[in-house]
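Tutorial handout. Part one gives the primary structure; part two gives the three-dimensional structure as tokens.
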Amino acid sequence: MNYESPKLIFKNIPSGKIGWCSPSNIALVKYWGKKGLQLPSNPSLSFTLNKSQTETIIDFSPAENNKCNISFFLEGIPNTKFAEKISGFFSRIINIFPFLDQLDIKIYSKNTFPHSAGIASSASGMSALALALCDIENQYFESFSTEKEFFRKASYVARLGSGSACRSIYGGLVNWGKAEGINNSSDYFGHEIRDNINPVFEDFQDSILIIDAGQKKVSSTIGHNLMKTNPFSSGRFIQANKNLQSLLSAVKYGDLEEFVRIVELEALTLHSMMMTSSPYFLLMKPQTISVIEKIWEYRKETNVPVCFTLDAGPNIHMLYPYDYKERVIDFINTELIKYTVNNSVIHDRVGSGPAKIAI
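Part two.
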């Protein structure tokens, strides 16, 4: 697939402002390991969140000497580190959006969740940015004849900034990576799964326990690269494909027991890959283990179908059906809150995807 567009050059360079709000997502089947240019070594499956979002506004104007100048503001404060990251991202997509060299760009971004809260801000941030860029293209070049084309390209572009960002372009249950039995699945963009979903999963809840609010000690990029030499990687990729098929079946038939089993297995397998890489690393904290054991005890005693998952960090996402919301929140407040930083819990749920910001 090739979205390079050398014809997209402004005749009359505009000024304007466009913004998008895009959610983060939590992977149920994890992707860990890359090939080529930001392509996954195994397919993944995620729930798009609702309240955990990034709001991004691009303010653009004519550039001098056809050289793009980027300023980045996080929560209203200039951030040169992120500006450098965005500049690197723009260098990868300049053949897709060649008009960028004609613009001076100011990016204003803010999250509805605390930074380093165990929520994938790169997924929400890069997806919001990709949507805004595609919107600029569409506004001035009328590039897309359908909404489907617009969001597919946005997902393709978001992937080049952050792999998991391609899943945040869509709501609900989203696949990324070529997978057996999923029509239109691709390594190049995310794919929204709309059919064969039991109603119990349509309003699934996600309570995020902030065990540690610090920055990750190991970047995801390093972790993904270490899968190239991990002795268990080939078996892991086979396992992920099998787990994806099993999870899709569980979602179709409302099999909560199987859903719980696979989601927790995927979380622990992700961290086992980190612990068996060379160099190895451990991102879970003692409190993470304590909370996991408490969840297991609670589920056994009450038969409440609540499970945990983890991203590449110590913070815990508790997933459960809406009908059990009051009981699970009471459990969190009475038994688990003491393991968090400053009683930090974010209650979220499955969401419907990104939205344009009215400016």
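Part three, for discussion. Residues 38 and 160 are 6 Å apart (CA to CA). Helices lie at 80-93, 121-141, 147-161, 220-226, 233-253, 256-275, 286-302, 325-336.
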